[in-house]
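U., I forgot to send this yesterday:
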Amino acid sequence: MTIETDVLVIGCGIAGATAAWRLAQDRQRQIIVVTRAADPTESNTRYAQGGIVGCGIGDSPQRLADDILAAGAGLSLPQAVHLLAQEGPALVQRILIEELGVPFDRTPDGAIAYTSEGGHSLPRILHVGDATGQAIEEALIARLRALPNVILRTNTTAVDLITSSHHSRDPLAVYRPITCHGAYVLDRTTGHVRRILARATVLATGGLGRIYRYTTNPEGARGDGLAMAYRAGARVINAEYIQFHPTTLAIPGANNFLISEAVRGEGGRLYTPDGRHFMDQYAPQWGDLAPRDIVARAIHEEMITHGYPHVLLDLASHMDAPRIRERFPTIYTTCLKAGIDITQEPIPVVPAAHYFCGGILVDEWGRSTIEGLYAVGEVSCTGVHGANRLASTSLLEGLVWGYRAGSDIASRNDLRLVAAGEIPPWQSVEDGVPADPVLIYRDQRSIQYVMWLYVGLARNTHRLARALRELSHLWETIDGFYRTTRITDELIGLRNMAQAAWVVTRAAWHNHQSRGTHYREDSRAEEFANLDNTEETWESPHGYAILEG
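Result:
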């Protein structure tokens, strides 16, 4: 079965939903939004606790830009940062507050209540308790549901992008620039794969935290969009820059529940289990409100050096109990269920993989290097985050680039809808065996442990070399599994996890310099003097040998 539409949006977090909302302003345009989840509000956006950047009292675009650039460790693209700082707060006001009515917290006199977070020079974070992302996501999805020219398809997993070079029946198409014409998608309820052909395709699939054993990310953050775009030939950059959130709940069974940076913004302080405050030692300028990469590595260093299983985040000494319950209801309730009363005792915390600062290279309008393919949100790399993301800029970036991508697509008349006859249907493995869940689980865990142990907070040449060898072997096994097994969402996710892990590790291997979230223990220049003379090779996920050096 083939479905045709004007625009296909894959993913419906703040970036994808904003793009769809902007495009739907023209009621003649048809938009299909697909998500693998049963509930369209299930996305990375939903789990964003802290808030979204606005314009605080005494703030300015230049001051915000300066903070983003400082956090980005010299790798942020200045023009992208200034674009975000100029346009972002105004879009928050116009779209989220005035158009959608997101109920941001207010002061007693009715003004927006701003809070502080690490790396910000003043309070400028708007929030809805500690469930800001959920409030924004629910408002956006409610609006999309009310639009007659937007179709929301849940339980629908994108399998691969449809491109002229890879899928056209015309053999000469390989000589033309790569153009995206939609995607093959799996209907999870029927098990059938169908074509959705579109004039423009927007990837908004979120991040890849699930390639790590410990992460704040939900189950769907498997690197699907990155892997699909990489296979299609899109340029991917800065993939080595994985931000680890410094504070997640360190209780067995808590699944690394995120303890928002806003807890430290409201006065929470970090201590070792024996009561020593340590952040001033690592970051005298910021203390507990240092950028995330610094805080995460400081915690990691304390744990490794002294053998601590975790450190402690104390808010109870700095905020009274009623205010804690009011300001952080989700964190309070979740910790209480785990046996921790945060109004009376500190929270045991450890770092976990959190945010992908790299991704599919896009311009100021969200255009990728593939014609007709846009990428917005965490799957993309706009240049804003550089080597380390400033807290609460992710939702803002998704809002700005989602809106800009929608605006750009709406203004174009050159995007062609390919004829259904030009693209072959999906070739299913009809006689393939069902995917064995035990094998899928085992391979997922193997990827996650390789990434956590060898491509985590601290990296070095030997660990990365081991990771490349093990990921190469895993890819060979998983690719063979994929080609002979009946397709499922879990199998698609496993394949994409392997691909995304390879992309991240290759980028980390080639970058010998510590910067931001990419920390090389062996980054001294002399240790790499002879590196280019090595001749170790591994098989890439595309099946050809790559010379390492």
